[in-house]
């Protein structure tokens, strides 16, 4: 609500919470958990909550219609849906659990719930503000689709939605348009978006815009940006609060009596069981004080329902001390029925601790009878139920707890998800009391308070008790017979196992001998192989040395041949050079001889020429003389 509303008018806070898991096509894991957990949170801050899960189409239509008809002017309205959705022609449809009957998108509008239409119906009631939360952006496919429509058969996410401008509205999507939300979170119990929403929805003095802004930031960070929630709003709803800044809680003005007490005052821890099983003692252990009388007595000590408030974590709990159901006379039984009813009326949303007494470790028949009678009247939710076996002997079989679980499954027909076996302790030993308290607290923190609505009156008559005890004795006897039979079978199997084990052991010993012989033979072969390898290595070294020596000899021989060849080549070259020198000498000698001969010849020629010239001169002189003499004579 906002500050103005709290000052001027009484404002109711209404919520319709729907979670669908049970789809035949792509069933989901955590939507019902999301719906239940958010409902519990909203109840603690004064909301009148209507919670529905796994609804079919007609049921969803009816619940939405009934809810919108209950809205009055100035109400703060929250609508939350977790499940599958599809978009068609930019319209968002919330899918009921019988969506497999939708043959095509052309028939979608008659089966899916139009998200915008829900808003329109709420606007008609003139509420103060509407918070429309859709944690349904998960991948989904219809069995068949109309190919002529604007439809992606594996539609991702949701289309954008526009809030009315006339009413304060906040529309929160678990992820952005056309993207997909994660159905898992760090606690593996809620979807990613709702997991973070639960951490902030009850914050006092924080407006809804800031709350969803914080949730968006945390989801984006936790998913590493894969999922980013989107928020759309109109008329500035920043002055709208789930919890007013002026008060921590808001009292309800029209909630039924059984739920109003829980919403205003917190949860209950209702400890049930017969007289003498230690209920009052366990309540005192949880409270840490001797609040309730638990003295040993011949008759019941507790005859009226009483409780005391304590703070556990962030929640208030009322721990109840209640009379046991079965008594010696019917008048006391009837009184105890009324006292038990008072606890469920006072705290309908509670944890249930049912205490079985232990007789030397055996479950008492009357405790089973009382449990079955209580479970018929107030169907006990397994997620809020802790079964306690109190005063078990410390010396017990190792598989005692497993045996008790199997026995209780036979006797009470309820899933035993949380069993707490408590040892018989010394009440004055503080260490043992502390250990016992820790055991109880550990079992309690693993459970979740749930609404327990009375289905029928507690029906229990002394004669019926005797008859039921006789039936239980038969069941217990049958169980013991079956157990004995199983033990005999186990012993026989153990004997056969021991025999087989001996055979296997003998075979193993023989195998060990064979393996040892093989090992020795192998070792011998290995040694021989090593020796052979060593000899081969030595021979290889020897051969390598011989080869190297031969190679060196060959290289030396080749070197000598090469040197000899080079020597012969040099000698031949020298011989050839000598011959060439001799040839040149001979040629030079011949040349000189020829030159000398030529010189002598030329000298002879010159001398001959000179002689001939002299002779010719003499002859010519003679001729001239003769001629002259001739001519002189002739004349």
UniProtKB/TrEMBL annotation:
<dbReference type="GO" id="GO:0006508">
    <property type="term" value="P:proteolysis"/>
</dbReference>
<dbReference type="InterPro" id="IPR027417">
    <property type="entry name" value="P-loop_NTPase"/>
</dbReference>
<dbReference type="Pfam" id="PF00656">
    <property type="entry name" value="Peptidase_C14"/>
</dbReference>
<dbReference type="InterPro" id="IPR006703">
    <property type="entry name" value="G_AIG1"/>
</dbReference>
<dbReference type="Pfam" id="PF04548">
    <property type="entry name" value="AIG1"/>
</dbReference>
<feature type="region of interest" description="Disordered">
    <location>
        <begin position="554"/>
        <end position="610"/>
    </location>
</feature>
<feature type="compositionally biased region" description="Basic and acidic residues">
    <location>
        <begin position="554"/>
        <end position="606"/>
    </location>
</feature>
<dbReference type="InterPro" id="IPR029030">
    <property type="entry name" value="Caspase-like_dom_sf"/>
</dbReference>
<dbReference type="InterPro" id="IPR001309">
    <property type="entry name" value="Pept_C14_p20"/>
</dbReference>
<feature type="domain" description="Caspase family p20">
    <location>
        <begin position="11"/>
        <end position="88"/>
    </location>
</feature>
<dbReference type="InterPro" id="IPR011600">
    <property type="entry name" value="Pept_C14_caspase"/>
</dbReference>
<comment type="similarity">
    <text>Belongs to the TRAFAC class TrmE-Era-EngA-EngB-Septin-like GTPase superfamily. AIG1/Toc34/Toc159-like paraseptin GTPase family. IAN subfamily.</text>
</comment>
<dbReference type="GO" id="GO:0004197">
    <property type="term" value="F:cysteine-type endopeptidase activity"/>
</dbReference>
<dbReference type="InterPro" id="IPR052039">
    <property type="entry name" value="Caspase-related_regulators"/>
</dbReference>
<keyword id="KW-0547">Nucleotide-binding</keyword>
<dbReference type="GO" id="GO:0005525">
    <property type="term" value="F:GTP binding"/>
</dbReference>
<protein>
    <recommendedName>
        <fullName>Caspase family p20 domain-containing protein</fullName>
    </recommendedName>
</protein>
